[in-house]
Amino acid sequence: MATRSQGLIVLTLVACLAWMGAPAWAAASADPPQRIVSLVPALTEVLFTIGAGPQVVGVSSYDDDPPEVLTLPKVGALLDPDTERILALRPDLVLVYGSQNALQTQLAKAGIPVFEYRHAGLADVLPVFRTLGTLTGHETEAACRVAEIEARLEAVRTRVAGLPRPTTLLVMGREPKSLRGIDASGGIGFLHDMLELAGGRNIFEDVQREAVRASTEMLIARAPEVVVELHYNVEIKESRRDEERALWQRLGAIPAVRGKRIHLLFGDHLVVPGPRLVRAVEEFARAIHPEAF
Amino acid sequence: MTRESSKDANGPTAHDWDHRPLRSRLMITVGGFGTLALAVAVLAPLVGSTPIDFARVFDRSIPFVDNADAQIFFLARLPRVLAAMVVGSALATSGVVLQAMFRNPLAAPETLGVSAGAALGAILAIVLGFTVTVGPFSPVPIASLAGALGAATAVYLLASAPRRPLSTAVLLLAGVTLNAFISALILFVQYLSDFTQSFRALRWMIGDLDVGNYVPILASLPLVVVAFAMAAMISAPLNLLTLGGDVAATRGVNVVRTHRLAFLTASLATSAAVSLAGPVAFIGIVVPHLVRLIVGVDNRVVLPAAALFGAAFLVGCDLVARTVMPATEIPVGIVTALVGGPFFLWLLVRKV
Fold it and tell me: What is the DSSP letter of A175?
């Protein structure tokens, strides 16, 4: 199985190299947008990864990846898009989040094309690459990136295939230095899908919500064998990580605590459903199945 | 509301009640509400989202680490019920004292900016990721306690400028203004923070009783006990204050001292409650009024009744919060208003 996925990666890379050598007209579609504003950080990352970065003229105030976006104009975010600033950039395509209805109406009146997006499951992430590739005239490059990511995801799937799937608590946030206010991934959404792909079994897989406030009672009752904590805002120093893990001693009877399987992962790539998501899946898998790596 | 008008409004039964000796009214009230609080406190830990086997819970032969039933009972439910009792009684007491002191039925623990101060502290700790711990206490409760006490001190200093007695009018206005000011600061911090942090901050402000161990509850007890003791000291003067400061003064009440103690009582009780569980809404305003509809307006009776009923009410609301939706919980602050609001309106319409 491993050789098959390695073969896939090689094939993809060959295809991509061939494309890079091809004449420019091969990739060009009719008048792709040249002034794109993205209000969704995940989509900004996708644009840059498929080679549409030079066409981006404005990003949301939360954007910080890739580093090129740091110098681009910021035009507000999900709740406070700055319509005036967006219009001033004279965009020919604006990527908005699905709930930004007022902004969409305003852009429609201004005759500016809009691409509407909502976070969904893992299966919905890669199709967005292709759609944006088509929209921006980077179809082939998008297909290459998708193939690469799919190959890496497949490699993870292969590694964990057939292994027992430990019940896992995926912590998306909690109070600093405390086990209070634990927000965990519920049974839907890309984080849940990523956890399942990485060979874990979400202890809240039956809860049809993206986030669950996990009470002490739920944690004891659902008894996770592995805890994976996502720290995407603040990086905790290496020397202090043991202190964070030690907090879990309060729930010393949970199998994950007794088995010393509390994993802390760091970085905002863990929670952005863009090209870096595959890295997050690999980190999840290493945490849940260290025996497979 | 004066005592006379309430007697008329409440009809002959209330009239008889008000003419009973204080000792008998107190015994009936404390007996009744005490039984209710005790019953709720004993029954609430028996119920939860997970069915547990009580034979196993108290079976000492099973090691605690292997006994999930005992863990759920002793680590999850019992601390939660105890926290609800402390928070409910503290907020209700704070409400009674503030309403009497300001002679304003709308006064509540949120009025003086103490809750807002606590919220600002907590939100800064959440958003900036404070890592300062003091002994077993984590950053958010520490920061919220500091914020609450800071706001209380600020209001008090504003209202007691040199060479001027403490003025309840200034206290109220300063409190309301500080509340608005701090609320704006909170919104500003939320605006600057990222989406998930804002959400977590908002979630903190709805209140949460899942304290997970006994240490924070024990830590809040000294503040609450001092507050209750002071409330007991001022319950009689507070009755006279409802007639107005001047009348109270002619009857021998040290008005400024009573105001000062009342403010201190309310601030300590609110600070302790909010740093333990967040600003749980509605208890401080509804429980005092509910209790007054039942036992009349004598603060000597209202105070213990409100403390006991506040405890029972919050434990009950939290029971609803943690059991009504399988696999998830409703934040308790939503339940207090959803349950308390209609109940209060029903009692109000029925009585008047």
Answer: -
